[in-house]
Structures are given as C-alpha cells and as structure tokens.
Prior knowledge:
Layout: H1 4-8, H2 20-23, E1 31-39, H3 42-52, E2 70-75, H4 77-82, H5 87-90, H6 95-103, H7 105-108, E3 130-136, H8 139-152, E4 159-166, E5 246-254, H9 256-265, H10 270-281, H11 299-302, H12 328-332, E6 351-357, E7 374-381, H13 385-396, E8 420-423, E9 430-433, E10 439-441, E11 444-446, H14 452-458
Helix pairs in contact: 3-14
The structure holds protoporphyrin IX containing FE.
Protoporphyrin IX containing FE binds next to helix 12, strand 7 and helix 13.
Amino acid sequence: MADSASQAEEQVLELDDIQGTLLRLRPTPFTGAYFLLRIDDPDDGRQMLARLVPHVASATQWWDPPHHAWLSVALSYSGLRALGVPQESLDSFPDAFREGMAARAERLGDTGDSSPEHWDAPLGSADAHVAISVFAPDTAAMESLLETARETLRDLPGVSVIYRLDASALPSKRTHLGFVDGIGEPDIEGSGVASLAHRMGGGDYGYLPGFGPTIKAGEFLLGYVNEMGWTTPMPQPDVLSRNGTYVAFRKLHLRVAEFRRYLKDNASSPEEEELLAAKMVGRWRSGAPLVLAPEHDDLDLAADPHRVNDFTYHEQDPAGLRCPLGAHLRRMNPRDALADSLVDVKLHRALRRGTPYGPMLPEGELEDDGAERGIVFLFIGADLVRQYEFLKSQWANDGDFVGLGNEKDPIMGSNDGTGTFTIPKRPVRRRLQQAAPLRRDQGRRVPLHARHPRSEVDCRA
Length: 461
Ligand code: HEM
C-alpha cells in the first residue's frame, strides 16, 4: 500500500551506487561503441567483472568519469546464469526479462522484417551475456578506456567479445532521419539534475518548464518508491537489484532513403516535405515542437531549454491541428492529452538513450546505398511490461487510445505500407498511406544490473 510519508518525502538516491548513464545525459559530441561478451567460464566471468567495475562511471562521477570516458555495463538473464547465479535467484527476475525480447516479439510488434530471425547475431540469442558501452568526447579518451577494458580480459579465456558496434555522434549532430533527438526526458526525483540541462550545453538551468511532473525514482530504479507508492518487486538477493534497473537494448536499422522518398512523394515542395516530416514526429527536425511552432521551424525556440519542451496537448492542441494525434511524440508521451481517460501517463514514462550508428546517407540522396545505419536505442525503466512493452504494443502499434483505430506510429510502428497516417486539418483532414517500415528491429533486452561496481563483485555470493 502507498506509504504517504514515503510519497511525500523526496527520496535520497545512492548516486555513487547508480550507473551514471541511467541518470545523466551524455554530453555531445561523442564517439562510442557497444560490445557484447559471452561467458564460458563463470570464474573468468566474475574475475572480468571484478576488474571492470571500478571503471564504470557512477552518477556522482559522471562529470569527471574515470579515464574521462564513460563505461557502462549490463547483464542479460543468460549472463547471470553463465556467472553461476543460483536458480532460486534467477527465478526471482520478472518474466519479461527472463524470456527476452525475441520470445516476446509478437506482443512487441517485432514481426515481418523486424522479426527475431532477421536480427543480427548474436542479438536476441542466449549468447549475449554482458553488454558494455564505452563513450568518450574524443578518440584518444575512448582508446585509453578501451585499452583498460581489454586489460580486464587478459588471461581470461572463458570470456570472449562476440560483437562490437561503433556508434558515434553524426557530423550533423542529429540522427539519420535529420532530427535532433533526446529532448523529451522525464525529471527524476532526487537525481540532482534537471532534465536536459547538460545536453543543452552543460549549464545549470534550474527548473526547466514543460518536462512534466517530477517522477518518483522507483519508476526508473529498483529499490525506491514508484508512482504507485510502493517499491517495484526486487529480484533477490537485494544486492542483485538495488540501484539497478532494466534496459531494452535495440539496434534499429533506419531506411533513410525510404523516408526521404516518402516525404517527396507526399509533398509538393521542400517546405511541405519539412512540414510532413515534422507532422510524423511532432517536432521539426531542429527539435522545435509543432504545438509551439505549427507553421514554420523556429531555431531560437529549438535552442531554448526553457521553451523547447514547454507545451501540452489537451490545453493547447486538443484536436491535433498542430501536432497530429498519431505523431510519434504525442503517442510516446501524451502529456495531458489522456487527462479524461483512466490512463496515468506517469506510469508509462522511461529513460531513453539513443546513439546513431553507420555513415550518414549523403544529403539529397534518394536511393539506398546498402550501408548499415540506424540508432542503438536503450529504453530504461524499472518495469519492462508497464513501460517499454506498453509503449511498443499499445501506444506505438495501436491507435485506439487516440481514436485512430489500428493506425500505427508513423516512425516506429510496425507498418507494412498499407496503413494510414492521419493529419488533422481544416476544413478536411489529410489521410496518407503509411510509409513502408522505416525501421527494422534487431534488438535484445539486457538488464542493467546496475547495482553499480560493488554489485558485480557481490554477485559471486
Ligand atoms: C525508429 C526509431 C526512432 C526514431 C527515429 C525516433 C525519433 C524520435 C524523435 C526525433 C523524437 C523527438 C525528440 C525528443 O523529444 O526527444 C523522439 C521522442 C521520443 N521517442 Fe522516439 N524514435 C524512435 C524510436 C522510439 C522507440 C522504439 C520508442 C519507445 C518504445 C521511442 C520513444 C520516444 C519517447 C518517449 C520520446 C519523447 C516524447 C516526449 O517526451 O515528448 N522512440 N523520438
């Protein structure tokens, strides 16, 4: 039951025991890489983790991380098993985590081209035991940390690196589809930093309007009170879960040429193409929100952390004449738009960390060049079903909640090119055929068993 005292009081987060990547946004520009490791010998695996964890940046060290680069680590269910975690303890993890995303593909809408048999090996397989990400402001800092990471594997034949994916900021500082991303992030109670403050240039902006109500830390971290007033059940023993969380790790291939052709085919001028792109996402490519800039892009608005997120739907755009009801942004965080329904939007927020991979498709190119490009997408929260799976299955791949029947998210819905995308307009709405799928999922879910450094060592118990 809700404990009113714990709800009212701000919880103190154990920041030095929480991986920094959970609570902090990475400054840009950056260069980085993701690695997956397989553990064939539990002793070697534990030894490797014991060596690695002192180099993991905590939320307190984030601004001055070891080696001036950021290392984060996560373990999958099969990884915990490979480390020798007892079955009783393994059984205390939730089904969604134990089963993994490949087994739950149907409910996640990972079908057709995005179904698990098309995922890059070893994504989605039981071989991916440990995920490590390394990010740095420049190549020298990155190399220095990578050298340290290699050292942790020295003389440990029972641990192998089975996958590497380089993922760095693009020269455009945007994502492959041309959008600025990473603006909408929840404010986490007790995290000690306002959303976005550092992404927007490192200053202390204090309170930033529009980021919605501050959300209880228990929505994002295990061991704290959540929005329902209780602590999300923790896998046992506590040492495996406290200050940790779950991560859906996805590699999303983006069909950039397809997107550009879709805009061209459905618009009569470059300006109209930009507007259509904005209607699909809910923001102009600069990041300026349609609700505040319905006709034209507004670069000053996009650059202003006090205004870029300061809008609502129910109050300012109830019929979706500015930002369509089915736009990606509005679906993924309906803000006040569901105020009249039973849905509590605060129960479906989560943290996002996205990194582009692959080369940019040259500006103006409309034909696919065959290169692998997309985003590595990390979706982080304490309840995989209520957060990640709900967003994917209900808000992305269903339109009922906004009165759009079975219309899907125009950017990341499991579209096959036969659906529709409705743009409310007066006197007559515009209804386009959806683009063919713009993304292909190649994902895998791993838990950030971010009980930060100590936990990995404790894991031997
Ligand atoms: C095809 C891959 C995707 C692309 C290109 C993409 C792109 C974007 C862009 C450009 C924004 C606006 C920037 C911002 O507000 O931060 C955004 C926001 C967002 N996206 Fe995505 N996204 C993708 C996949 C996903 C997935 C898979 C999810 C969740 C399951 C998701 C959840 C969100 C959320 C929660 C927001 C913030 C909404 C808000 O707070 O107003 N996105 N995305």
